[in-house]
Amino acid sequence: MEIVKNHIDSASFGSIIVDGKKYIHDIIISLDGRVSKRKKKLSKQVFGTSHVISLLEAEYVYESGAERIIVGAGHNGMVILSTEAADFFRSNICSVVLLPTPEAAHAFNTSTGKMIALFHITC
Fold first, then answer.
1. What is the tens place of the pLDDT at every residue in 90-102?
2. Which of 21, 28, 90, 110, CA to CA, is 20 to 30 A from 7?
3. What pLDDT shows up at residue 5?
4. C-beta of residue 3 within 8 angstroms of C-beta of residue 32
5. Neighbouring residues of 99: CB distance < 8 A, sequence distance ≥ 6
6. DSSP per-residue string spanning 31-81
7. CATH of segment(s) 8-120
8. Rounded to an integer, what distance in angstroms lies between the CA atom of residue 59 and that of residue 85?
């Protein structure tokens, strides 16, 4: 699999622009650069909210070989990892960078290596 480096053009409340394309929903950026809609239901069905990332969602987002996941935790930093999700990433030797979305976008743009990303675009 070829690693592709996307660029976050901007991240404002309710939208994120990646490589010139605007998204008005939470997104995942995979190792190969694909941008897809976040499957919030994987966490909502466990915790009743998409503000806690469940083990199910962590397993869905993770790709073998990823060294880092950058999580845009919303503009007010509301998203957190469940203990199980944190343990899952740790066991796969995948570090987690959890920051408010605008800061996470900057971290994504300035980071190198094999990384995936999840961006929550509202609260």
1. 999 999 999 999 9
2. 90
3. 85
4. yes
5. 70, 71, 72, 73, 77, 107
6. TT--EEE--THHHHHHHSSSSEE-HHHHHHH--TT--EEEEEETTTT--EE
7. 3.40.1230.10
8. 8
Quote the CA–CA distance of 50 and 55 in Å, as a whole number: 12
- The pLDDT tens digits of the residues spanning 6-59 come to 999 999 999 999 999 999 999 999 999 999 999 999 999 999 999 999 999 999
Tokens 């699999």 map to which residue?
1
Whole-model pTM: value is: 0.95
Instruction: Return the residue matching tokens 């660029």.
Output: 7
- For the chain, the structural domain boundaries read 8-120
CA–CA gap between residue 85 and residue 64 (Å, rounded): 15
| Tokens, residue 122 | 């509202």
